[in-house]
Design goal:
The complex is a heterodimer of chains A (491) and B (205). In chain A, strand 17 and strand 18 form a beta hairpin. The longest helix of chain A is centred in the N-terminal third of the chain and has 23 residues. Chain A is globular, with a radius of gyration of 26 Å. Chain A is α/β, with parallel strands linked by helices. Helix content of chain B is 43%, strand content 0%. Classes of the chains: A alpha/beta (491), B mainly alpha (205). At the A-B interface, helix 3 of A face helix 4 and helix 7 of B.
């Protein structure tokens, strides 16, 4: 993977431009943003946005796993058949076995199922119930993976079988992905794995390349964490001024005018409490605080919402913006997150229908022919907790190869119990796949067997890094623009 | 012409409906029409063709009020393809079955419990069994067919949805669920009786 060098205003014109004397007959060119098509792919997004009249919780999560296996099993069987049909191990022809429990000892065969990893360190609700006489403070860990003791199993409608062998230990697997494994049953009833196959990248729609010479960028930013108080970072206002073309010289404005769409991907609202309300709280006052409508309204801090609203309203007047919720935002917590209600941002709401839009998490876009799949980062963060490695881009690439963008749902990632279709299954590979709220900026291009090319972008948190990612719609190149104050120590 | 008055029993626990909405008026009209036809003719509805609504010529309609309703309904074709929710609560809880292929016929036919094809189909499904079924005296073939459909693992979990929803889901996924079961489930009893409409674990889970 290559980390692109940050592109700030490094043109020679601008370094002297801002510090020079005003000229007599200076003209200020007005740059215009070209109108562009930026749509949501409704056949995928309609399944993420659940209508209140259709949401039911009577079904169990088994339906979701059933749907996942039924849809992905033929796809992975096809890949496995191409790889293993006609192969013979130890002079035995390998054959496909329909049910996981039908494997026989000594026969080499391949089976398809959902992976389930029994993790000893995963927090289990049953532990709390059994330990009712004494409690220990739960040790919060970053990762719950324990490679020596975790048991990897393959499950389908008939049952589960334990997978053993060195091949399976080195593979990146999480609970919920559908794979095909080749091997044979051992004497102890486990399945010794020789080879493993994923569904691989789904087919990709060809990109319609535009004929014009102007460049078009999609700006991705996440983790704004707008708090609205006096300690608000200056970088946030610099970012919005840059996107509106008000920052820097004419070169910067020109570059900003090439941005046709801005996606704010998650965690735009800060959840820090206002410092003022806490100071006024005293033990006497807290009892007298009235509870109207069942909640204490004096502890509500409206500054983050108001600040974000005014920033987004200014931005929406200049460029089309989509706001996607993250795990700290005021919308539901379970995945897929519903769009943030536009009533929270009343000034930006006036642009609803023209340049402002509130979208679900995850979301599919089609911007000038570029198909984008974006998440707020929760599935990748969840996968990170249950595997050994750190490489976020590898996790994103493996999600594409599993043809599933959130395999740990519903096991550890809270999810709605879908009954009729699993909307996280990728029926096509996007051209750009990004995950927001990641610790650092990383990007790479993944190439599939049939020539699919996907740009993967891990969008870093703006509040920590000050970076916004610009992706070129035509060439899929990714640049990053960093905003920092001198002396704050950011690169 | 004024729409016929709604009967008291059907409006006790329903949400107040806008009087101007013709579609919902027609729901009630159709239900009443079906009920009144049954009472007028004294026998179950046996429509001649599945594409028409209730053809006035086939049944012995003598009441003017009922004939009026019949004429009104024929003009509203889109109402016919929707499923009747039994209570308003079901409107909210269950999603209406969308019109995925196969399309339901316009008229809800009554179920013939003694149809020989059910017996034949059920015997075919029981060929894999090694022992005779026990405690099944007095259980009709239709109920046994539906329970067998519930227990077929290939069509997925049964909890939390009606059998028709499960059938449609299996159909959409390409698992080819049996047509016989579909015919039972879209019949009049198949839609109204809990025993036929819901899975065998309804009320328990």
């Amino acid at each position: 993977m290559n980390i692109m060098a940050p592109v700030a205003s490094t043109s020679t014109l601008d370094s002297g431009y801002l510090l020079s004397d005003p000229k007599e007959d200076e003209t200020f060119p007005m740059f215009e943003r070209r109108a562009s098509s930026r749509e949501l792919i409704s056949k995928y997004n309609d399944e993420f946005v659940l209508k209140n009249t259709e949401k039911t919780y009577e079904q169990q999560y088994a339906s979701l796993y059933f749907l996942r296996l039924t849809v992905l099993k033929p796809r992975v069987s096809k890949v496995a058949a191409e790889a293993w049909n006609g192969m013979s191990i130890l002079n035995q022809e390998v054959k496909a076995v329909d049910r996981v429990l039908d494997v026989r000892q000594g026969e080499f065969c391949w089976i398809v199922g959902t992976v389930y990893i029994e993790m000893t360190l995963k927090p289990n609700i049953l532990d709390e119930i059994t330990k009712e006489f004494w409690t220990t403070a739960p040790i919060s860990k970053d990762k719950f993976a324990d490679p020596e003791n975790d048991a990897i199993m393959l499950e389908d409608e008939s049952g589960r079988v334990n997978l053993v062998g060195s091949t399976i230990k080195s593979e990146l697997l999480v609970t919920g992905c559908v794979v095909a494994v080749l091997g044979s049953e051992t004497t102890s009833g486990d399945f010794d794995v020789v080879d493993i196959r994923f569904p691989q990248l789904a087919p990709q729609l060809p990109r319609k390349m535009s004929t014009g010479h102007e460049r078009k960028y999609v700006a991705l930013v996440s983790g704004l964490e707008v708090s609205g108080d006096v300690h608000e970072s200056y970088e946030t206002s610099m970012l919005f001024e840059y996107l509106m073309g008000e920052l820097g010289g004419s070169d910067d404005s020109k570059h900003a005018s090439e941005i046709i769409h801005v996606i704010v991907a998650g965690n735009s609202f800060s959840n820090r409490r206002s410092p003022f309300s806490r100071d006024e709280e005293s033990p006497d006052n807290s009892q007298k605080r009235k509870k109207k409508y069942g909640y204490d309204s004096s502890s509500y801090n409206s500054k983050p919402t108001e600040a974000l609203d005014s920033l987004l309203a200014d931005l929406s007047a200049s460029v089309s913006v989509d706001i996607m919720p993250g795990d700290q935002d005021p919308t539901n917590y379970s995945y897929p997150q519903q769009p943030i209600n536009a009533a929270l941002v009343p000034r930006s709401r006036r642009f609803l229908g023209s340049s402002f839009r509130s979208v679900s998490n995850p979301c599919w876009w089609d911007i000038e022919g570029l198909r984008i799949l974006g998440t707020g980062g929760q599935p990748i963060d969840d996968i990170f907790k249950y595997i050994e490695g750190d490489d976020r881009l590898q996790m994103m690439e493996t999600c594409l190869r599993w043809q599933h963008c959130a395999p740990t749902a519903p096991d550890t990632l809270w999810s709605y119990p879908f009954r009729d279709c699993d909307p996280f299954i990728l029926n096509e590979t996007p051209h750009l796949f990004f995950a927001g709220n990641q610790p650092e900026f990383k990007t790479t291009i993944v190439v599939g067997e049939d020539g699919q090319r996907v740009r993967l972008v891990a969008v870093p948190k703006f509040s920590e890094t000050g970076k916004v990612v610009l992706v070129d719609v035509d060439s899929l190149a990714a640049e990053v623009v960093t905003f920092a104050l001198n002396g704050t120590g950011r690169d | 012409m004024a729409p016929p008055k709604r009967s008291q029993s059907s409006s006790t626990n329903k949400k107040p409906l806008a009087k101007q909405v013709r579609l919902t008026d027609s729901f009630r009209q159709r239900k009443q029409l079906a009920a009144s036809l049954q009472s007028v003719t004294g026998k179950k509805l046996q429509p001649q063709s599945t594409t028409e609504v209730i053809p006035p010529a086939a049944s012995q309609i003598t009441s003017d009020k009922v004939a009026e309703s019949a004429r009104e309904i024929e003009t509203e074709d889109e109402v016919e393809s929707q499923e009747f929710p039994e209570t308003p609560e079901e409107d909210v809880q269950r999603e209406t079955d969308e019109q995925v292929v196969p399309v339901e016929p316009d008229v809800v036919e009554p179920l013939d419990y003694d149809d020989p094809q059910y017996e034949a189909y059920f015997d075919k499904t029981q060929k894999v069994n090694i022992a005779a079924p026990i405690h099944q005296q007095g259980v009709s073939t239709v109920v046994r067919i539906l329970k067998n459909f519930d227990l077929t693992a290939a069509y997925g979990p049964t909890v939390g949805m009606t059998r028709l929803q499960r059938w449609r889901r299996a159909d959409k996924l390409g698992l080819k669920p049996p047509e016989v079961v579909y015919k039972i489930l879209i019949s009049k009893e198949g839609k109204s009786m809990d025993e036929l409409r819901e899975g065998y674990l309804y009320g328990q889970i």
